[in-house]
Amino acid sequence: MRTIFFILQKEFLQIFRNKSMLPIIFVVPVVQLLVLAFAANYEIRNLSIDIVDHDGGNWSQQLKGKLLSSGYFQLYAQTGDNAAFEDLETNKADLILTIPPHFERDLVRDGEAKVQLLVNAINGSKAGLAAGYAQSIIGDFNRRIRLDWLALDEDDAPSHFDMSFRYWFNPRLNYKHFMVPGILVVLVTLIGAFLSGMNIVKEKEIGTIEQLNVTPIRKHHFIIGKLLPFWIIALFELAFGLVVGKLVFNLPFEGSIGWVFLFAAVYLVVMLGLGLLISTFTETQQQSMFVTWFFLIICILMSGLFTPIESMPEWAQRITQFNPVAYFVKVMRMVMLKGSGWEDIRMDLGIMVVFAVGLNAVAIWNYRKTV
Amino acid sequence: MQPIVVQHISKSYGKVSALRDVSFTVGPGELFGLIGPDGAGKSTLFRILATLVLADKGQAFVNGKDVVKDYRAIRREVGYMPGRFSLYQDLTVEENLRFFATIFNTTVNANYDMIRDIYEQIAPFKDRPAGKLSGGMKQKLALSCALVHRPSVLFLDEPTTGVDPVSRKEFWEMLQRLRQRGIPILVSTPYMDEATLCDRVALIQNGALMRIDTPTAIVEQFSTKVWAFRASDTWRLIRDLRAYPGVESCFAFGEFLHVVMNADPEKVKQDLITEGHTGVAYQPANAGIEDVFMALMRAQTEIS
Asked: CB A7 to CB B145 under 8 A?
């Protein structure tokens, strides 16, 4: 025990003497949260729209007014067909609404009229959203016309039903409440896997392991002494990030924060194990960084942080069952947004414990063999 | 009980054999030198004795303990200074020393008498990060760290490589003082002049020991006559002498060239003057340990 204490003392001395360490601990989370949370935005506003109005009547004016007042669209130009298409090609307009000639006449006479919507689909998700917004606004407009114009009397109106939505757990669809917990997971992961692995490899790289091995320090002393500081720092980092999230984004804390920390504590053991395992395969900090990066980029992209796991192909979904990052992202969101408790997270926690034991067993076994 | 006993140790890395059937013993309080060029296998031998590497064949004992079975006990009793500077460059002199004292469950103060002579030389820099010390200072710190737990055997792997001549001399004076305390020291060096400061030396080349004896005995046994030659153009002299029939070896030794040959020196001198050399002079030379080493090396190469 005393030996571990002395190693810890030395580690903290070195960590805080490292000039890049304090910024990593205090500046990086703030910057990541502020920049990423604002930039990784799923809401699309201010789509620029070109309107080609061949009709110019009262109804087409109303339709335009409704689109532009929705807040999603901003008129780029109201021009002819060719000019509008050029705007779409040069990326100045995201979509074109074409109102044909005799729009109003057809609507009144035949009870039917057509409008055309052209959407720039270079960015698929943006195009989908733009089309969706426009469709729902036009559909809404359509219903009103039928009520106002065709069935003059409310009672004579053809039977229809209205839908109303309510988004549970994130009523205003505030994507920041959704993203911030996920970004905190990434932060904690970086410290757990990257820094710990590099810290162990550093002893090999600068040769101090040679001196340490000819001392009474046992391997488990060394491993615990090297990993524990990052376990502590990462948990501190999580707390710090949650405080920033609360202050800046008014992050909801629906569930008990204790569950988040309990899960994080186990999750970090998994990540430290990954760092340890990689350190047994590599000789320099640079190698260790690249290998860790390879694993983490896959884990993070497949964690459901940016794109929902449910929309992945089935084989990919199966892979995510072995992705610890995905579990932590899920649990973090469940606890913070939904207020989940022990009953809801115990399965995930159990899986995480299995990962922690398994990965560390492999890492330690491999470590014993190599050094 | 002999503090260090090495019996028929062999070790190879893949196809390269680093050590071949090496055996020697170091007696109590003896300063034992391993002399050999880079890549001779010195560091491998140190790593086997320091319990860091397992030998393929043979046995080794430190303080009577087997380096394989009793490695844990040996690690408490030896002081090891690796060939490469292996302290924490970002910790200060004092922090390094304290760390290595504490992990041996002791304190700097309890063993201060052990390191006083050495540590006092670097004490003015005790708040400086180890990475910012000069080469000589680094080695003194490394020696202090290796001594701070009162080891009963010292392994020093090339402690004076990359160190300036003054610090080298100081370092060896410190080793002499440690020997007076009765601590057996195994030290390796590529510098032949340091060999004469050891009680006994082992000459090692290509993983095999060529000779083990006291430095004086090694030189005395060297039967071949050595001649020292000089001329104004040393570089041309080396070239011409090496090409001269009957010359076995010729290498620079200070301002002279040490030459081993089966020829009459007077005739060689005349021939050199005919070839256009000026200032040619010769005299019988006292064979140094370098001459012995060169001769043994050549003999070994001829055999293989």
From this structure: no
B138 with B238, same domain? no
Q: Locate the chain A residue with the closest alpha carbon to B77.
A: A215
Check: CB of residue B81 under 8 Å from CB of residue B155. Answer: yes
**In this complex, which of B89, B95, B105 lies closest to A206 when CB atoms are compared?**
B89
B39 and B148 in a single domain? The answer is: yes
Report the sign of the C-alpha dihedral through residues A136, A138, A144, A150, in that order.
negative
Contact B121, B140 (CB under 8 A): yes
Q: Give the pLDDT of residue B303.
A: 65
B186 part of a folded domain: yes
Q: Write out pLDDT tens, residues A110-156.
A: 777 788 888 888 877 778 778 888 888 888 887 777 777 666 555 65
Q: Residue A229 corresponds to which tokens in the numbers above?
A: 């500081």
Q: What number is the ipTM of this complex?
A: 0.79
Calpha distance B123→B146 (Å, rounded): 16
Q: What is the pLDDT of residues A333-357, one digit of tens each?
A: 889 888 888 888 889 999 999 999 9
H-assigned helices in chain B: 42-49, 71-77, 93-102, 112-122, 135-147, 165-180, 192-195, 215-221, 234-243, 265-274, 289-303
Residues B180 and B92 in one domain: yes
- Whether B22 is covered by a domain: the verdict is yes
Interface test with A, best of B46, B47, B86, B156 (most A CBs within 10 A): B86
Q: Inter-chain contact A211–B104, Cβ cutoff 8 Å?
A: no
Expressed as residue numbers, the domain containing B161 is: 4-218
The residues of B whose Cβ lies within 8 A of any Cβ of A are: 50-52, 72, 75-76, 78, 80, 82, 84-91, 95, 99-100, 102-105, 145
CB atoms A215 and B86 under 8 Å: no
Tokens matching residue A159: 């039977």
Q: A47-156 maps to which CATH number?
A: 3.40.1710.10
Are both B153 and B243 inside the same structural domain?
Answer: no
Q: Do A207 and B80 touch (CB under 8 A)?
A: no
pLDDT mean over B92-100 = 93
Tell me, yes or no, whether B134 and B278 share the same domain. Answer: no
Residue in A3, A14, A210 closest to B103 by CB = A3
Q: Are residues B150 and B252 in the same domain?
A: no
Contacts of A18 in chain B (CB under 8 A): 90
User: Do B83 and B175 fall within a single domain?
Assistant: yes
Chain B CB within 8 Å of residue A16 CB = no
CA distance B90 to chain A (A): 7
Q: How far is CA A311 from CA A306, A316, A333, B79, B145, in A?
A: 11, 10, 18, 61, 59
Confidence of residue A260 (pLDDT cuts 50, 70, 90): very high
Query: H/E element holding A357?
Result: helix A342-370
Whether B123 shows a pLDDT value over 60: the answer reads yes
Residue B167 CB: number of other CB atoms within 10 A? Answer: 19
The pLDDT of residue B23: 93
Q: How many domains does chain B have?
A: 2
Nearest Cα to Cα of residue B115 among B154, B95, B144 = B144
| Residue A220 CA from chain centroid, whole number | 36
Q: Outline which parts of chain A fall under CATH 3.40.1710.10.
A: 47-156
